[in-house]
Amino acid sequence: MGKIYGSAEEALDGLLFDGMLIAAGGFGLCGIPELCIAAIRDAGTKELVIASNNCGVDDFGLGLLLQTKQIRKMISSYVGENAEFMRQYLSNEIEVEFNPQGTLAERMRAGGAGIPGFYTKTGVGTIIADGKEHKDFDGETYILERGLVADLSIVKAWKADETGNVVFRKTARNFNPPAATCGKICVCEVEEIVPVGSLDPDEIHLPGVYIHRLIQGHHENRIEQRTTRARPASAAAGEEV
């Protein structure tokens, strides 16, 4: 069955429902499924629970769904640069389940691998461990974390072939692979779709068995934190430096 769809709206057709759990790839603004996020906003799906490292920025990425109050709960590691996320959290307008970054990535990976739970030392002795099972291994205390299985995964990759074999580019290979595997359905947006056989098997980061729907589109390259310094006076005057 063909996996390629003409737009994010078409790829998400029939998949969205209120209250669903969505796993979203990306880290900061790197490798985020921006086309799918915009399509979910336009669809008006509400009461969403979203598992993602962070929630974008105020006017981009998952921040768009914060603006429209479509997110009920975030499962994430970082409030970070999003002022609206912080405001909603502090005013009890949104529920946040904080996960250490490695724990969140492993919860996604475990869910995709059919592993219902795992033990980790991360978070022991902190509020992260509250209400969770504790177990000793070799004299060390561990807490039980549950694998995460989402109703839908939305991810962003560099390119894919027509069967959904995917290549991520550099640091966009962050939360995208585990997020893709933990969804019952995965929609992947890419910059380029190439013919089958164009990708060397050794360069494929995620096999097509995990990708159910595929779209190609244009993406922005935003910088989350732009840091610059003043140009040296000698350079400004045209001298060599």
How do the strands and helices of this protein lay out in sequence?
Elements (H helix, E strand, L loop, with lengths): L3 E2 L2 H5 L8 E4 L9 H10 L4 E4 L11 H5 L3 E6 L6 H8 L4 E4 L2 H12 L4 E4 L13 E4 L2 E7 L5 E10 L4 E2 L8 H6 L4 E9 L18 E4 L16 H4 L5
Parallel strand pairs: 1-12, 2-3, 2-9, 3-4, 4-5, 9-11, 11-12
Antiparallel strand pairs: 6-8, 7-8, 9-10
Structure, explained:
With 241 residues, the chain is an alpha/beta fold. It has a single domain, classed as Glutaconate Coenzyme A-transferase (3-Layer(aba) Sandwich). The chain is built from 7 helices and 12 strands. It has helices at residues 8-12, 34-43, 63-67, 83-90, 101-112, 176-181, 233-236, and strands spanning 4-5, 21-24, 48-51, 71-76, 95-98, 117-120, 134-137, 140-146, 152-161, 166-167, 186-194, 213-216. The strands form 2 sheets. Strands 1, 2, 3, 4, 5, 9, 10, 11 and 12 form a 9-stranded mixed sheet that branches. It has a 3-stranded antiparallel sheet with strand order 6-8-7. The radius of gyration is 20 Å and the shape is globular. InterPro entries: 3-oxoacid_CoA-transf_A, CoA_trans_fam_I, CoA_transf_BS, NagB/RpiA_transferase-like.
